[in-house]
Predict the structure of UDP-glycosyltransferase.
Amino acid sequence: MENKDNQKLHIAMFPWLAYGHIMPFLEVSKFLAQKGHRVSFISTPKNIQRLPISSLSPLITFIELPLPAIEGLPHSTESTSELPIHKVPFLKKAYDLLQSPLTHFLQHSDVNWVIHDFICHWLPRVATQLGINSVYFNIFSATTLAFLGPPSELRGGQRQLPEDFTVVPKWVDFPSNVAFKLHEMVSHWDCMDDEVSDFQRFADAIQYCNLVTTRSTPEFESDSVSLLRKLYGKPVVPLGLLPPSSVPRQHGGADDQVDEKWEVLREWLDNKKEKSVIYIALGTEVTLSQELMHELAHGIEKSGLPFIWVVNNRPLDGRHVGCGYYSTRVSNSGG
């Protein structure tokens, strides 16, 4: 993102209010700051206060935008982790109301680029009006985007019901068996805003941005990345899988422990053969019952393989511990 004069840029980051989105955006922010760019990381106060920010680059500034209160959204709620799935549409409505304060910030700053999520479908057009370049950062796999299809399909294609998403779409031009289970799509229907569907949000974010980036690599998803470039008719840039950064930093920060764990894991992985380790992670907001935890453990044990099992920490001092704070179990065997 260097400009023609090789000058440093001011880049705004605006993720969706879920830790599985916020933390990848933070990793990209750290990378950009390492390159000397100024970053304005924009979110709500509660989400920013939970981030491990004490030892981050001084080039990263955190901008707090209070989340508007709306009927149906529990008081002081600012992330999906605090809500049952059927309440998430209210969070999306409140998030859309951040358009005005965010626009005001962009108007009165020297931001050159804005990197945004798919939920804020209005932001690319706002950025264009202000002469700011916009980048849609997809935190999902490139294969997920390829399955969803081009903006025209997302807006009004043939798939109108949950069951329509249980088969591989016709535009996927390589061998694939990737499709949703019916219960997955039924559940997702419950978390969509009835005024602006997630498909509409994806379509606008993709169509009106300058370029698309995705949390993937060509080595992992070359067919999907190539297909996306055909479907979108614009640049699609894979950013990698964004593991925690290992850049040397001053000690004493709140996230030092997390990075130390990653260094141990990386050294352990480097000593394993290719394709020999099982990785189990169910996301930042999935809580299994004790019965399901035991079933999963039995399955891992039966494999007899070394594994990494990511388990969310318990809440501390009454606060939810979000993505990035993990208890990670490493074993050389299934036992």
